Amino acid sequence: MKLGLAASKHAAKGLGAGLQDVPLLSHATYRREEILAALQYGSLELGKNVQHREGVAWCPATSTDAFFVTLNKDDRKHSATTMYKDYAISPELFHWESQNATSPGSSTGRRYLDKDSHGSKILIFIRGTADDATGLTVPYTCLGQVDYVQHVGERPIAITWKLHRSMPADVYATAAAVAQ
Fold first, then answer.
1. Which pTM was predicted?
2. Which residues contact 19 (CB under 8 A, 6 or more apart)?
C-alpha cells in the first residue's frame, strides 16, 4: 500500500498527461539549460550550448511551449517592450503576457489559445529576479502544466492560465506581490 501511495504522490509532482517521460517535477527548481534539455530543445553535453534567450521556447520534440518568467524585471536590463506584467492571481491562476509580436490570430497565438486542438502543452517556469545578490543567475521554479482560462488584448495577449497543481505558499506570495 505504501508503494502505491508513494508512486501516486510522485506522479502528482510530475508534469502530467503527455509529459510523463520528461524528467522534470512541478515545484522543483531548474536552470534554463536543464529545462530545455529535458524538453529536448537542446543538450547539456559538453560543447553543445543551448542557445535560447527569449521568454518562450517552443520545443517541437515534446510539443511544449516553455514560458520562462522573471517576475521582478530590472528596467535597466529589459526594454519597455519586454516589461510584461506576469503575476499570480491566486495559487491556481496565473496572469501571463505573450511577446509583443503575438496576436490571437498568429500561429503562435492560436497554439496558446487552443493548445488542445494543436496537441501542444504549456509549462510555466518562474523566478523572482534574474540575478541574486551575488550576481549569480537565479534558477526557475516549475509551476507545471497549465490550461487556458481566458484572454484579452493582443500584441501582447494577456492570458489567464489555470495550473494543474497549486503553487506552494512561498512561491505564490512572491508571484502575487508583483501584481500590486
1. 0.86
2. 62, 64, 121, 123, 145
3-state class percentages of the chain: helix first, strand second, coil last, to nearest 5: 25, 25, 50
Q: Are strands 29-30 and 140-152 parallel, antiparallel or unpaired?
A: antiparallel
**38: phi then psi, degrees, rounded to nearest 5:** -65, -30
Q: Minimal CA–CA distance to 85: which of 97, 67, 101, 74?
A: 97
Spatial CA neighbour of 27 closest among 173, 158, 169, 122 = 169
DSSP-derived secondary structure letter, 142? E
| pLDDT surpasses 80 at 63 | yes
Share of residues in the chain with pLDDT > 70 (%): 81
Region for 176 from its dihedrals, namely left if φ exceeds 0, alpha if ψ lies in -120 to 50, beta otherwise: alpha
Give per-residue pLDDT as tens, 67-82: 999 999 766 655 555 6
Number of domains in the chain: 1
Q: What CATH number is given to the structural domain containing 147?
A: 2.30.280
Please compute, for residue 133, the number of CA atoms within 13 A of its CA located in the half-sphere on the CB side. 0
Q: Residue 129: which domain range?
A: 2-177
